[in-house]
Design brief:
The structure is a homodimer. By secondary structure, chain A is of the alpha/beta class. Chain A has eleven helices and 18 strands. Chain A has an eight-stranded mixed beta sheet, with helices on both faces. Chain A has a six-stranded antiparallel beta sheet with strand order 14-15-13-16-18-17. Chain A is globular and about 75 Å long.
Amino acid sequence: MTRIVQKYGGSSVATAAHILRVAGLIAERRRLGEEVVASVSAMGDTTDDLTSLAHEVAPHPHPREMDVLLSTGEIVSSALLSMALHDLGVDAVSLSGAQAGIRTDAVHRRARIAEIDAERVERELAAGRVVIVAGFQGVSEASDVTTLGRGASDTTAVALAAALQADACEIYTDVAGIYTADPRICPDARPLLDIGYEEMLEMATTGARVMHARAVELGAVYDVPVRVKSSFDPTLPGTLIHRETSMEQGNKVRGIAHQSHIAKVTVRGVPDRPGIAAYLFEPLADANVSVDTIVQNASVENLTDMTFTVAPEDLEGALRVVQNVLPHIGGSEVVFAPDLGTVSIVGTGMASAPGYAAKMFRTLFDHEININMISTSDIRITCVVESDRVADAVRALHSAFELEREPAIGATQVE
Amino acid sequence: MTRIVQKYGGSSVATAAHILRVAGLIAERRRLGEEVVASVSAMGDTTDDLTSLAHEVAPHPHPREMDVLLSTGEIVSSALLSMALHDLGVDAVSLSGAQAGIRTDAVHRRARIAEIDAERVERELAAGRVVIVAGFQGVSEASDVTTLGRGASDTTAVALAAALQADACEIYTDVAGIYTADPRICPDARPLLDIGYEEMLEMATTGARVMHARAVELGAVYDVPVRVKSSFDPTLPGTLIHRETSMEQGNKVRGIAHQSHIAKVTVRGVPDRPGIAAYLFEPLADANVSVDTIVQNASVENLTDMTFTVAPEDLEGALRVVQNVLPHIGGSEVVFAPDLGTVSIVGTGMASAPGYAAKMFRTLFDHEININMISTSDIRITCVVESDRVADAVRALHSAFELEREPAIGATQVE
């Protein structure tokens, strides 16, 4: 029997009408004889609403209690979807993360899955039921509710697919798949038929929010092929994220990712001696500040500058930490820039072929977009630019690398 | 160390501002050195809102899933209250019914507490924390969420007070205590200083909605004195529900209870033979129709009439069941009256003193209120009257039994 794990995002279950449509999609799969497990997000803006409510009672809500609070959003949608299935004559059962055996560490707000005890899910499937799992949540060893971080219903689905040895994992969202760039700012963007795990990871971590980065990592580790599809038009093929990427090597840039808003912090005049980086970044990690790019310039007269980027909402916390450690590391001053963004070109082909970086920098220069900072990986080149030039940069690069062109028929390997 | 269990109802935690006030009340008790466990209801209209949402996806929501859905309301308020306490510098922890060890049977929507495993709650108290328990819910042996029925956060509190051997149980609500009658329809009504368990039970089951009937039963069984207080003015004494009722025997009617809307079903011409009642009422119970009063008239020519009352929302279901069994029990016809109500006088003194029933019937007659049906217990006399005369009946009886008069000083035994 074919076993599939699905995930329906917040926009796919935003209202009762949306939930009824999702129930219809699942009922159809049951009629085809498939075993279905679905992970669901909270309805529409529920998570934001609950967060606002929390801030009304406490400026800095306690993380454990925040997890208890936020976890209810996914429980509500899981129960409603299960009810809707029953009403269609499909036997179903909703399970919380704890009931579904999703065991995590005890890091509230950003817990990581330690293991999945799939016994209950297997038992429900064996009884012929559709299993609806509240996404985004798990349970710690102390039996406390944990959440896996924003967008982590994807992670729930991929982890379940791995644990249940599912035949397929389908992520339903409100777009037609993974695009070559964000179609809201780049009208020529088109959905990719497939993309490799590493490419997707670079796309996700540098701004393509369709898929949660940790879900992609998990997919890669457990080799779970993940199909990203539109719940509004499930007849579209969507994008397959899998190990083998396209055989088509003509265009080695797969997509343009971007982040509209990041902030940059620079610590000037730091003595260039071992251990300085640890002194700086350990307390940032302790303060739960997630650091993106880190750049350390070559030292001049044994002094160096240390620059890193953070999300705008983490800037205040980052500056507080840096000011505290400044006397210990001996830096001369801290400067920051709050209104920056990033644009990245991503593709596995780039590492083995020269000229991509040069073409990127030339394109930005031709459009008079100033490059503030550069960082690279094997399959990605990222430029930090002014926030208000991000959209221009995405469009210029999309066009320069001819991403609007469909790959030749047959050149794309499909599952 | 004094240990108290409190319950805060939906109106006491209706908004963030309400929750902050409740947190202040609890923080004050902590400053006095007391151990505090609080059971909370869902905020304001949350339960109604969730119920409406359920009916948008399914006309007859699956009971198990309805429990999953509704249980989130209390979890939200418990997490918010715990956050608010942390913000006041009070260590606190929110627990779901399952986490608090509230084990129930598996009858969804109307589960009953089987036992309380207080290990986790005791551990949190020993660590110096205030424990906030999501009311109204528990967990079945199969690890499924159950709910205890509308208003059952009271039951959660009393059961916890019994299991934790608390020194006091306080039910906070939006009124000043248990009134001699509903003050909304009887302006002369006044709060009682104390009332016996049995009296309270009769008041609760015949319409005084301040306290959940099962909570009163539990209090009686485990001898937990329960104080009903206003969360809006906690300086008021409220009403103590306890074993010993007032020594003041001058007025044996403690209060007037009423139900504004009930429906009556009569099965006519039933052969008067053994087992008929079981034939009729077993299928009603199976259909989850809760029957209030049952009256069987003396038989004439071996035929009798069987009359019972139900909540208006159960009338349709009751009629369906009765029509189905009519051929088997041989009744001639089924008639019903949808627009009735009840008025009751309640008091332990009545059983041992004659004349209360006569005075009640005379008072109603004097006010031209027709009595449709009568039922009595040791400490209660109930008359079924037209729905639109219920308020008049309450006022007339309150006045006739002089309930507006305060008991003499010293005549009321206080804890």
